[in-house]
Design a protein that fits this description.
It is built from no helices and eleven strands. Strands 2, 4, 5, 6, 9, 10 and 11 form a seven-stranded mixed beta sheet that branches. It is an all-beta fold and 121 residues long. Helices cover 0% and strands 55% of the residues.
Length: 121
């Protein structure tokens, strides 16, 4: 059983910063990629940022230059540093992992429970 737990969300004023964390636990053989998604009320879930096993990253156009995804392999943790936050960044942010639990198992897609980020004056 693989579990992803997000933390770091909260209420912040426009222009402020937050750092989200996603810690993975359980039987994990290999991480192929970990990413952050978000979903605002009335909107579709969208990919915010992803980091792959080789270290390459991708960002949504709306967050480029403001958000940074990083990882700590020793802690099985991925981070999302969010700077210069805007009201339109308000959403539930969820962690996603593309991983393999064992060499003989297929790759799988796992999700955390989500953490609320609210940007408001």
């Amino acid at each position: 059983q693989v579990q992803l737990v997000e933390s770091g969300g909260g209420l912040v004023q426009p222009g402020g910063s937050l750092r989200l964390s996603c810690a993975a636990s359980g039987s994990i053989f290999w991480f192929y990629a970990m990413g952050w998604y978000r979903q605002a009320p009335g909107k579709q879930r969208e990919l915010v940022a992803v980091i792959r096993s080789g270290g390459s990253t991708n960002y949504a156009d709306s967050v480029k230059g403001r958000f940074t995804i990083s990882r700590d392999n020793a802690k099985n943790t991925v981070y999302l540093q969010m700077n210069n936050l805007k009201p339109e960044d308000t959403a539930v942010y969820s962690c996603n992992a593309d991983l393999k639990t064992a060499i003989a198992q297929p790759r799988g897609d796992y999700w955390g429970q989500g953490t609320q980020v609210t940007v408001s004056s």
